[in-house]
Design brief:
The chain is mostly helical and 99 residues long. The chain is built from two helices and no strands.
Length: 99
C-alpha cells in the first residue's frame, strides 16, 4: 500500500492528535494521584483533630462525628470546584491559527 500525499497529511495530523491525547491522559493520571494524595492528607488531618474521639475500642467511639466532618468538608469543596472550573476553557488542538 502506498501513501498518497493527502493521506500523509492525514497521518501527520492523526499523529499530532495522538500526542495531544497522550499528554491529556498523563495529566489526568497525575491529577488523580495528586487529588488522592491531598484527600488522604486532609482525612489524616481530620483524624488527628478528632483523635480524642477515637478510642482503642471503635465500638465505644464517635466515628460518626469524624465521618460527617469529612462529608461537610467535601460539600464545602463543591462550590469552590464550581468557581474554579468556571474559569476553565477547553483548548483547541486544530491546525488553524487564530486570526
Amino acid at each position: 500500500m502506498t501513501i498518497e500525499p493527502h493521506d500523509a497529511h492525514e497521518v501527520c495530523v492523526a499523529t499530532r492528535t495522538l500526542a495531544h491525547w497522550t499528554d491529556l491522559v498523563c495529566g489526568v493520571v497525575l491529577a488523580c494521584r495528586l487529588t488522592t494524595a491531598l484527600g488522604s492528607l486532609a482525612c489524616l488531618g481530620v483524624a488527628a483533630a478528632f483523635s480524642s474521639e477515637t478510642p482503642d475500642d471503635l465500638n465505644n467511639g464517635h466515628l460518626e462525628i469524624e465521618f460527617f466532618t469529612i462529608g461537610g468538608i467535601a460539600l464545602l469543596a463543591v462550590p469552590l470546584w464550581a468557581l474554579v472550573s468556571s474559569f476553565y476553557t477547553v483548548p483547541s488542538f486544530s491546525d488553524e491559527q487564530p486570526a
